[in-house]
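Case study B.
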Amino acid sequence: MIQSSPLGRAELALSRRRLSDRLRAIGIRDERVLEAVASVPRHLLIPEALRGQAYKDVSLPIGAGQTISAPRTVAAMTQALQLAGSETVLEVGTGSGYQAAILSRLVARVVSIERVPQLAARARTALDHLGVDNVVVHLGDGSAGRSADAPFDAIVVTAGGPEVPQPLLAQLAPGGCLVGPFGAREEQKLVRMRCDGRGNFSREELGPCRFVELLGTHGWAAA
Ligand code: SAH
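Model:
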């Protein structure tokens, strides 16, 4: 198959580099994030039939009614976390595993939670295949976080909820921040919450966005 030939690999690497350059052109400034986009093989984390679109800046269906976010969204959220390298990060909504794979190149450890068994299993297999060994995928309701592994230096929520789940704020380390989409079901605002370490949180709104629903105890009720 072309993807495993040296020429295929070179073409894929070039497509990734072009994608990374495009994200720089639209305002992503964190060079570590851009380098991660240029190196993570997104085509291996999406359904095979869609692989030709892997390096377009678009969201794509991944099964179970869920989507992998567009690269610009993943990059903007990751940049907003302002990661230095030694962090433990909680991701709510593993989905395809792409956001987790990007984070794996930027921090020490990633704890990711997915509620759909089929997606959690597929993401784990794909991450293993990529040799990613600092991401743990848990099956469960990530809207409650994971107190056993808390505190987290950063938290990224990749599904849209009505409001920032309180348990997630409680699991944030002093000085850490949480980024995620919150608001109505149809459209949310990307929100960054920062913990000052004295129990106070500052809230910034980073712009409108649209994500699949965060379902769970501290999200929307499942239909
Ligand atoms: N970060 C993912 C984006 C996946 S879309 C990626 O890079 O591909 C959001 C995911 O959140 C979906 O897979 C959905 O099943 C999951 N999700 C929704 N509510 C959840 C919850 N309460 N706990 C864990 N995962 C949840």
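The pocket of S-adenosyl-L-homocysteine is lined by residues 66-69, 92-93, 95-96, 98-99, 113-116, 119, 141-143, 158-159, 212, 214-216, 219 (CB under 6 Å). The remaining cases will be described in the next quarterly update.
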